[in-house]
Amino acid sequence: MNVRSQISMLFHLDKCIGCHTCSIACKNIWTDRKGAEYMWWNNVETKPGTGYPTKWENQDIYKGGWKRKENENISLRGSGKYKGLLNIFHNPYLPLLEDYYEPWTYKYLDLIESPQGDDQPTARPVSLITGKSIDIKTGPNWDDDLSGTPEYARHDPNIKNLSPAEQEAMFQLEKMAMFYLPRICNHCLNPACVASCPSGAIYKRGEDGVVLINQQVCRAWRMCVTACPYKKSYYNWSTGKSEKCILCYPRLEAGLAPACMHSCVGRIRYLGVLLYDADKIQEAASAPDDELIDRQLDLILDPFDEKVIQYAKENGVADSTIAAAQTSPVYKFVKVWGLGLPLHSEFRTLPMLFYVPPLLPVMASLNDTDNSEQSGKLDPIAKFWNRDSLYDTSTNALWGTIEQARFPIKYMANMFGVVNEGVIKNVLRKQLAVRLHRRSVTVGDINKTLVEDALSEVSLKPDDADDIYKLTSLATFDDRFNIPPAHREQALEMLENTSDTKGATGFGFKEKPVRGL
Ligand code: SF4
Ligand code: SF4
After folding, report:
1. What does each C-alpha distance from 52 to 41, 129, 133, 229, 246 come to in angstroms?
2. Stretch 485-501: mean pLDDT
């Protein structure tokens, strides 16, 4: 067992209100400068939607992440050593500026400096890159709240295996369902960005797992931009270096929360330590699709287990880090309660940020799933179903609202379950059981046997349900933010010389660090 520690974030998607405060906080601190105007290290997308950069989840376009080969090994999909060499002067898989957007500002001075005239002065948009006037065609949150519109939701890569009927159920404008998806770099355990860098400029810090780009070593190959399937590595056209989310490590080292978390209005973010077994990374990353999530979660170790503690100490993990892992809110959500899932595990980078899928308000459900019959009834121009009996709002079974959700489970399974709907149903059932339990406690109008059945079916006890409720709804900042003091002495010793390990995924330190600087 090779025990290492990682600072990890969990996003509770039911709580996100899509206010973008997190994005603005990050922008103001880190990317409000030349060459970084178009970068949003933290962005918040509306789902269903195409996201930023557009259709980033479609690896047929961008060739990000890893793919499993027939011999069960994995290789970078679009930016390995030889593929990189072939694309060295022209990389066809890089997102273009129009896939992000051309950043702009307005000529505000025109509002106050225009000569007096008959017309109202206007502040015209100008490109932040060229300084010339532009017609704004798109932006990083252009599809905000536009779930169901033809241009955005209908081009979401996650709807690919939904039947026409299921898609239309999501898109009916008056009954539209959507949720917000905040995204930052996942500080992965098998980071494709690290593996793809020909210069060895990207590394994963040993003491907390933060993935960073050494600006002095970066040579602008931009292989990391292609390799990251989440498109969270960006190229700065002014400095000629790539950049990415740094998990606000200077703030973490000072005991402060990352700016996105600190400013989060919905209090949806939780930050804590996870201990994991680095010996199992390769096995987990190359597991068959249907085992990917389980194998990734198996990597995360029980911080109370004596053996884990012993191996952690032997590896130089500080006592304070182990103590933080034992009280980590992320550990509770992900391992103890089984509510947190990684985003798009099938990209095989082993993302170390987790999401609680949203238990959306269930308004209605679709009762007719004969695809061929229904696709014939789809109006190709107006894009609506010319039949009004498609929705069934009955919920005759305990889990009826989940099983017949109008927002298809299949869609969320494409995002968080590697197409396995059972994984999503299990998480949603747990959340619903907690709601039933709390309703029974506070209002008392639900049959007690029903509540007991609901809890036992998802292997939760009333105390568990109360704990989940407290950490979800009543948690203080200290409950949500729980990291150990920074250990700079480890930070220095745990660094690898990444130029010695080019092509490796940089799991941080490989030797036990020498103590006592
Ligand atoms: S591959 Fe993972 S660690 Fe690397 S930039 Fe993308 S999300 Fe971050
Ligand atoms: S600040 Fe929090 S609630 Fe607002 S969009 Fe960001 S993650 Fe969601």
Report:
1. 11, 19, 23, 12, 19
2. 58
